[in-house]
Glutaminyl-peptide cyclotransferase
Amino acid sequence: MFCMNNIIIVLFVVLNQLSSTNQVSVIKPRTLSSTRLKRIAESTDYDEFETLLAPIMKSRVPGTNGHHAVKQYLIKFFTDLGWQVTLDEFDKNTVIGPKRFTNIIATANPDAKKFMLLTAHYDSKIMTGKQNGNKEFLAATDSAVPCAMIMSIAKGLDLNQLKKNNNYSIQVALFDGEEAFVTWTEDDSIYGSRHLAQLWSQPDANYNTHLSKIEFLMLLDLLGEKNPRFYSGFPETHGYFERLRHIEGRVRKLRGSVSENNRFFTGGTPQPLGIEDDHVPFLRKGVPILHVIPVPFPECWHKLCDDGKNLDQETIHDLLTIFHIFFKEVLRA
């Protein structure tokens, strides 16, 4: 991901909002009881999360053995879970030569009319230069932790219950090739999300596109370090952001913590974040975006210290709890 000039972003977002082809439909989430909320908070298992995370904690540069191993691991996980798994495989001539990329799409109920698209990227950045030596860049927050969080969320949902609702369901897209190989530009970055957004913009036999079925795209990125701050960046999804904020307040109240000083999700009106990431190709095509990324970026962003030792267990546990509750409420699952 990359920070752009705020003035450019403001103009960019406004223009795309004016040309938006998607409108967030009126889905009425149910608010879980305090009893059920407490049960979810108590059952969120960090040890299980670490088990999901461990196989992703390796260099995942496209074209390497580590990348292939993680790709197969993610595919197997969602296949074993009973979700429909499809692959968007394509070849692209990059700034360092031809590469093959694979976006992984997992769908709980393919028959649903609308989808809440939960996303992250699973590749990792090439780290070059003498200061990096031969050390392997594990990219824990960027984005091994978000991928493992998505796996945990999916595992916590009742697939049989999800299949009973054909109005809306959850879909996962794990993007390949988010990182630039050399320098972040429009051509050298977000290879996978650009390809999938274009693919899903093609009409079917009934002149419908898959993009038109997306209620919102929720992108998780750079998660896992202590004291993240998240801001609402898009008016169309501000209600969903506020629900995340409300859930966080209830979770903290359960623990007896009501201070606003250490809240993850901040209040206020939506403001453009000025960040380029995997959501941009979908935003340009009118898909509502819910971007969960800390501002400022974590201390170890694109540094070798993003190796797992920088992760904060309590922060990850709290975020997992919030996300589990959020999807159970919006999916009424």
